[in-house]
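new request in #modeling-help
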Amino acid sequence: MTIQTNETPARGPSEHNIRDQVVEAATAHFGHFGYEKTTVSDLAKAIGFSKAYIYKFFDSKQAIGEVICANRLAQLAEIVDQAIADAPTASEKLRRLFRALTEAGSDLFFHDRMLYDIAAVASRDNWPSAAAHQQRLRQLIQLIIQEGRQAGEFERKTPLDETANAIYLVMRPYICPLQLQYSLDTASSAAVLLSSLILRSLSP
Amino acid sequence: MTIQTNETPARGPSEHNIRDQVVEAATAHFGHFGYEKTTVSDLAKAIGFSKAYIYKFFDSKQAIGEVICANRLAQLAEIVDQAIADAPTASEKLRRLFRALTEAGSDLFFHDRMLYDIAAVASRDNWPSAAAHQQRLRQLIQLIIQEGRQAGEFERKTPLDETANAIYLVMRPYICPLQLQYSLDTASSAAVLLSSLILRSLSP
């Protein structure tokens, strides 16, 4: 495709603005019609750009979805960071982490269903943004466990890696939008029960 | 509906055979065309009965699906019972329970996809057979925990109910066909990791 041969630097100084404009319009359009049902042609018509022009800035519909998804995941990361920032102990951090993730996921489902659906596609198709998010959460869990081990709150016999993986697995059905949709009515009480079980499993 | 006013005892001695015949034909038909896409009319045509005749024996398509689902769940219950029967400890029973459930669910997905889909509908719509199965598993977990507590294997501080519920919640994403489909590739290693986490949480 000749379009693809345009080098990024040649796209000019307004590229950033145009990318933002496409993402903004796409967010609205996906929000109304759903990510899966929308084509790049639909988007082009809605924005008033040519399809070829959009392809100058994004390789595919997924590339636009990725930006929307990454923006939302950055917000989620901030919510999580704030939730655990002033927790006095590693145990409390784990509880708050689980609660914040469950609440944010449920909020998205009930208040921004179309964005939830993009997140579900991202998770199903293992988009880089979704994979990076999972990796960050997995690392955050490991950091909290290390902190708790150093403070003498948590046992140290189990390999750190195993502990972190297992805890991530307990949380995953409430983090992953594909799975969370089947537990929405019990998610908040489940987060409490499962946090307690996790903390019992960590006791020295 | 006048059909519904026929009392069960008046249906005659061959009722059981005819019910079996309908269930058998329905299992094959659902297996080819899927449960959701098949109507009672389709079934009637395939079996060579009138639709009204089928309605003499089953109130609805779901009632037929329920029998298929209940048959399969009875098989699953037997697999689980056999898996844990000769386990030397309560800990080993929990491990084997988790493994047997995950394996049976994965087998169903890969080898009898249409039946898996009926199970998914049963779970989504909370059919009595699916609800009873979940309740049985929940009780089985509680019995194993009681056994382990009595043997001194497991801690006794946490309320029994809370412990059993939390463990059931850890296992549920691998039991529920709606959720299992998103973890198939990691289900068997997850069952091992999560069993170990559960056992750490139970240590006295």
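bot summary: Residues 35 and 125 of chain B are 13 Å apart (CA to CA).
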